[in-house]
Amino acid sequence: MILEVATLDVIKGMEQNFLRDFSIASKYLEGSKGYTRHSLMKCIEKENRWLLLVEWETLEDHTIGFRGSAEYQEWKKLLHHYYDPFPVVEHYNEISR
């Protein structure tokens, strides 16, 4: 299992529109090969920050499969204009539970 972690800083004043569009965009993510599950968490200290956690079966399911898909293009259209700065996305291997 690979965990994708992205800190999403949404432009102030656009938070409600972001949440609406994230709900729509999630459907594109959920149908992707290798997708296991995801969660979106809201930061307590910064009202316009979210943390996106996505579990993938393999790194390539995200970096090649999803990012190379038509579904990603729809995800991008729906969400990428909300971010400032653009998110840094990192991937993690589970070492211990």
Explained architecture:
The protein has about 100 residues and is of the alpha+beta class. The chain has one domain (about 1-95): Alpha-Beta Plaits, CATH 3.30.70. The protein contains three helices and four strands; from the N terminus they run E-H-E-E-H-H-E. It has helices at about 15-30, 60-65, 70-80, and strands at about 1-10, 35-40, 50-55, 90-95. A four-stranded antiparallel beta sheet has the order 2-3-1-4. The model has no long low-confidence stretch (mean pLDDT about 95).
Quick overview:
The chain has 97 residues and is an alpha+beta fold. Helix content is 35%, strand content 30%. The protein has helices at 15-30, 59-66, 70-79; strands at residues 2-9, 35-42, 49-56, 89-93.
* Strand order in the sheet with the most strands: 2-3-1-4
Number of strands: 4
Count of separate structural domains: 1
Give the overall shape.
Answer: globular
Oligomer: single chain
Provide the gyration radius in Å.
Answer: 13 Å
Q: Tell me the distance between the termini.
A: 12 Å
Structure annotation, total helices: 3
Strand content: 25-35%
Q: Which CATH-level-2 architecture?
A: 2-Layer Sandwich
In the CATH hierarchy, what is the class? Alpha Beta
What low-confidence regions span 5 or more consecutive residues with pLDDT below 50?
Answer: none
Helix-strand category: alpha+beta
What's the rounded overall pLDDT mean?
Answer: 97
Portion of residues in helices?
25-40%
Order of helices and strands: EHEEHHE
CATH topology assignment: Alpha-Beta Plaits
Largest sheet features: 4 strands, antiparallel
